[in-house]
Each structure stands twice: as C-alpha cells, then as structure tokens.
Fold this sequence. Notes:
Elements: E1 2-7, E2 14-18, E3 32-37, E4 40-50, H1 61-64, E5 70-73, H2 80-93, H3 97-103, H4 107-110, E6 118-124, H5 134-146, E7 149-150, H6 151-157, H7 162-170, E8 174-180, H8 201-212, E9 227-231, H9 237-250, E10 254-258, H10 266-276, E11 280-282, H11 289-300, E12 306-309, E13 321-327, H12 344-355, E14 358-363, H13 368-375, E15 380-384, E16 395-400, H14 401-408, H15 416-428, E17 431-435, E18 444-447, E19 464-466, E20 471-473, E21 480-482, E22 495-498, H16 502-512, E23 518-521, H17 531-540, E24 546-549, E25 562-567, H18 581-593, E26 604-609, H19 615-621, H20 625-640, E27 647-655, H21 658-683, E28 689-690, E29 694-701, E30 704-713, H22 716-729, E31 737-741
Parallel strand pairs: 9-14, 9-15, 10-12, 10-13, 11-12, 13-14, 16-26, 17-24, 17-25, 23-24, 25-26
Antiparallel strand pairs: 1-2, 1-4, 3-4, 3-5, 6-7, 6-8, 18-22, 19-20, 20-21, 27-30, 27-31, 28-30, 29-30
The site of adenosine-5'-diphosphate has 16 residues, from α9.
Amino acid sequence: MQVSVAIDLALDRLFTYLVPVELTEKLLVGQLLRVPFGGRIVRGFAMSLKDDADVADGDERKFKLKPVMAIEDASPFFSPKLLELVKWIAGYTSSPIETTLKAALPAAVLKPTMKPKELLYVDARDDAGEDLTPQQQKLLAEIRRVGGGWMQQLVREFKTSPSTLRAMAEKGALEIAPRAQRRDPLAGRSVMPTRPLQLNDEQAAALKSVMKAVPVEGGAAADPRPVLLHGVTGSGKTEIYLQAIASVLETGRDAIVLVPEIALTPQTVRRFAGRFGEQVAVLHSALSDGERYDEWQRIRTGAARVVVGPRSAVFAPVRSLGLIVVDEEHDPSYKQGETPRYHARDVAVVRARLEGAAVVLGSATPSLESWRNAQTGKYALVSVKNRVTGRTLPAVHLVNMEEEAARTGHAPIFSAPLLDAIHLRLERGEQTILFLNRRGYSRVLECQSCGWTAQCPDCSVPYTYHQADRCLRCHVCGGWTHLPSECPDCKAGDFSYTGVGTQRAEAALKRCFAHARVLRMDADSTSRRFSHDDILSTFRAGKADVLLGTQMIAKGLDFPNVTLVGVLNADTSLNRPDPRASERTYQLLAQVSGRAGRAEKPGEVYLQTFSPDAPAIAAAASDRGFAAFAEDELAARREAYLPPFCRLSTLVFRATDEALASAWAELYAKSLAAWAAKFNSSHGAALFRVSESAEAPLAKAEGWFRYQVVIRAPSTKDIVKAVKWIEAERPAPKELRIAFDVDAIDLA
Ligand code: ADP
Ligand code: ZN
Ligand code: ZN
C-alpha cells in the first residue's frame, strides 16, 4: 500500500510513501505521520491511500519510494470529510494544501510538547482500609461524602496533608492517581443555567423552518438548503439557535456556532454555556495554548458537542455534525485575511453539504450575497419581522452636521439634539450608548499653518496620536515616534489633532456632563484579558450612565436599560475605496441602532452625519427596513457589475522595490486583459473585466510597496484559471510577493 503525504512545508505538492506491512492495518487517512524527507525526518498528514496494484509493475517510481517511519498520533486529526473540505478550500482559494491544513488546526494542537495537564486525584475505595486512626476514618467519610476530588483541593478543604492522604492510600482506603484536569476557559466565571423560553409565534414558525433543514435520525432533511434567518435586532434569534441546537443534540448529532471574533464575549459564551453546560467548548483567540488544546481534545473525543468560536471554529472536529449556525453572517471578520483566504460562511455551507448537516445563517442585515441567494431560491429564507413580545424598533433621527457646523461655526463632536437626548436620559436614570465609527483616520496630527500631516515612513497611512503615552503610532506596522516639536515642512509649532478619537469624545462628554459616569471601550481600554467583560458587566449593573466605544460595542449586546444610541460620525465608513462601503455602513448603523430599546422602554437613535442623503444613511434612518435597502443596493450593483452579480478578485503585488511591484502588476494586468478579450469574444459579452494596474489604496505597508489589479468574472473558477495560467507562464522572482484573494471583500 502507498500513502500520499502533505509535508509541513508550503510546497503545494503531495509526496508518496510506501506503507510498511506492520502499519497497513493501523494507518488511516487524516493521521499525522513521520516520514523521511531529503535526509531529514519530518511530519506530514496522510491525505489518501492507494493500493500497489494501482501502480504499474514496470513503473520505476515504485522502487524508489521510501517507507513511512511511524504514525505520530493514532487518532486522525482530520476525518475523511474534513480532509475533503480542506482540499476544496485549497482548490477554491488557490492556496497550498499544507497551509490550508494548518489553518484548519489550532497551532497548539500540533506542538509536540503539548500535553494534557495532569494532577493527582483522590478517590475513596469501597474497601474500608486497615488500621485507620479515628481521625483518618472521619476524613474517609468526608471524602466519600463529596465523592473524591483533586488532592490539592481536599488538602485545603479538609485541612489535612498530602502525606496523610498517601498514608490512607497505603492502607487501602484511598486511590491516588494522576488525572487530566481540564484547563477551562470559563473557570471562575459564573454561568447560570437557563431553560428554553416559550417561543412567540414568529419564533416558533422560524424554528420549524430551521428544523426542516436538520437531518432526521437515520435520514435526510425535509429541505436541505441553507437557511437564511433574517430577524431584526432583538427578535430572539439566539433563542431560536439554542432550541434548534437542543433538538440536534437529542438526535445524537453535534453543533457548531460561529460568531464574529468581536462578538465572542463571555456574555455570548455564557448564553450557550448556560443552556448546554459542560457540553460547550469555546475556541477564541484569547485562550492559552493549554486551554485551546484541551477544548480541541474535548471536541475530538466527543466530550464537548456544542462548539462556539470565531471563523476557524468551522473546522472543529465534532464527531457527527448536525448543525452549523453562522451568527451575524454578514460580518467581515469571517473572511480570513491571509492564505488560505477563505470565508467561513461559505466554508460552513460547503461543510454542511459534505456532512449532510443543516446550516443557518442569521443576521438582521444579511450580506447581499446571501440575500440574493435567498431570492433565487438557493437558500431558504426565514424572516422574523418583530422584536420579542411586541417591543418596537427605535425611532431613528438624522442630525445634519453641515447645518450644525454652519450654526455654531465649527463641527462639534456632539450636536445639540444629541446633547439634549443624553441630558434627558441622565435625568431619567436611563442609559446611553455612544458609538464612534473608527473606520476613518482619527487623531491625525496636522500642522495648523501648512497642513502637513504626520505619516508613518514605512506605511502610507497617517500616524495616530496616543494621549496616554504622548506618542504617534502606526496602526499598520506598530511603529511609533515622539511628537515633533515643530513642523518639518514650515517649522511652525502649532499642531491640531483632526478627527475624533474615543479619548477626545470622552473628554468632551465630561465637559458637558460633569457628573455623568462614562465608560470607554476601545482597543486601548480592553487589552487586558477580561476587561472587555468587566466593562460590560459594570455597565449592565447600572454603575455607569454612558458607554462610549468603537465597533466593539456595535454587536450583540443586550442591555435592557439603554434607551438612547448616538452615532457620532455615521458616514466615516462610506469613504472607503470598497464596493461594499454602502452595505457596510448600513449594516453598522442598523446594528448599533439595534442596541436601543431592547426591553420595555422604547428606544431612540441619533445619527450625526455630513451626508444625510447617502443611500445607506438615509435607509438606516427610514423605516423601510433592510429589504428596501437591499433592493436599491442590488439594483446599483447589477448596474455596475459588482458582486453578487459577478465574482471579484484582487491580486496584490508587493515588493520593497517599487518599480518591481509596479512592473509585475502591469504585466499581469496586460496578460489578463488579453485573456479577458478572448473570454469575452467567446461569450459574446464583456463578462471578464480586468482593471488597470494601480497603487493599492494602502500603497505602502511595513516598507513594502503595494500595487493592485482587480478582476471580475462570472465565476471564481474562471478567475482562478486565468491567474494559474499566468503564474505558470511567468514565475515571479522571489523578491516579489503576489497575494491572490479570490473573493476579496475589500480593496485595501
Ligand atoms: P437577537 O439575537 O435576535 O438580537 P436575542 O436572542 O438576543 O435577539 O433576544 C433579545 C432578548 O429577548 C433577549 O434578552 C432574550 O432573552 C429575550 N427573548 C428571546 N426570546 C424570548 C421569548 N420567546 N420570550 C421572552 N423573551 C425572549
Ligand atoms: Zn507646517
Ligand atoms: Zn507603519
């Protein structure tokens, strides 16, 4: 027998080895193997097996094959279905198979040094033991009562010593042995058990439709299409997920819940842990290697059957997948920014199909890709139009900042109507959330006399001013510098900080309301591990009046006493060089607005904007809802030949030598244009379109110059085919990096 192996080097090539007789029974696809490679011993995954009979006897390769040395781990890291999924991703995103395999596995799991944490565990034997002292007999009774425990814990609790326990073990009354102790990411955090809520009619109908996609025990689903669950914010989608998962668990199958990284707060995790307890495994970026290793092993062994995590959790090795939920399916964090550049929502759909499982994509503001799939019938659409038990959606007011600026002579951080609204909340003892859209550049240092701005020399972005340590930082490369004492261009000494950062907004707010208790939440205030959770708990407990923050506070938060939401700069995200800028802006505003009035008291939203007529802003303020926005936006996309009416890919050429990057971008653009001309003439329409080569919007990063070519075509396959053709024709020099993003979600 022979096995093809993906070796841990990004060669994008499989190597064939002989399977020695003693391993033929044991070797399985998906296992990690040890093999000889170029005079070294390396590790690699078994990808497929073939019989010797498949190789012709005369084939001399047969004699050159080296044998597999050993199986590193008997239980496979990838099931056959997961391997199939990984191969699909590698092909679809045009990524090396080895890199794709690695992306599907937490790095901690492959560390050879990683082990379960073992501690001594004490169990009482049935045997009474010989010659126990009266004290030891009392202790034995106590240990029996609590049903055993960790040595350390018993010593502490019963004020005894390890040597006493050991002596009792020698006398045959106790058994002491090492046992794996789970490194629990939720340890020390209280989780209250919850029970299923009585669903309202809309929720019940939605759950019923979702369940049609879930395979019945020993059979297929009534309607196996992916389900797009479109429910307004606060419509009780999470409760629908919870009840769908409960049913799936009952049929003996497992569930994966994907949430955006930013929404993966302990608050979210608690909602799942509260319902399913120990069966929940959590995977997120703040876990220690040990926690991640343990959670992954618990999933692999079937101890955990509900996995909650960000995009990489779509690869969780659950044993029998029944359901994948993708919450906030429109969220850009589902797209991986490096090779393999997969989109977890799309991977979820493919995995569910491969494993005969249901997939539910939930959102109040679905991506236009999913919305269109629902319209064409590729996905089943399930709508929940009302908030739970009749609570109304908040009233949204637009504040035209042009007018505010004209009236007051400068553009204030807070408009008069918003200040009045905050004042009212403070009087009534209700809470306010203020949101600062950070997509634009804030806190840029600018010379008052000549307009010079401080820029990072290695990246083409302005530095951001940080008040805490009084320095300028680059958010692309992390570099920093001191504040200049004078302008390098005109030698003047007056600087202004244009744009508004959360710190400045906080200061301004405190000037207006000296007694207001304000909490600030941004990347600076949440770098400690639980500070995110702590801030939210403080706010929830009513110990603050105002929560002021960036994107972090836009999603998923549910505070009953919040009746006002203010967006300080609603339009910043419109100005991005991105075909989805309008969609993103609408999504963001709808999500933030959804934080207001979630309980009995009705909510109000103020959107401050300089462009009240922009379609995304106007739509967010109207009660026409998502469907109306989507209809207009889809019409515009169709007109402009943009996704979802085509596939859009980018090629980014990076080099430290600008001429090299630009020359290669030029070469690709020309060759692709020639390919496009042929494609279009054989299809009789201009379906394959290639941009001119140009500087990328982020023209320089970490000292690398970036040039870009944008390709549009009817399918990703068409694009991959063309790019592979050039790659083969013109191998790039090693000083040049080419990043190919097949379904690019932005053009940065
Ligand atoms: P969404 O995920 O759609 O934004 P949530 O699931 O967070 O909405 O629900 C909003 C609030 O309504 C939560 O506090 C939740 O506990 C509550 N809720 C959901 N379903 C019900 C129900 N059937 N009865 C009472 N309260 C509910
Ligand atoms: Zn100057
Ligand atoms: Zn930089």
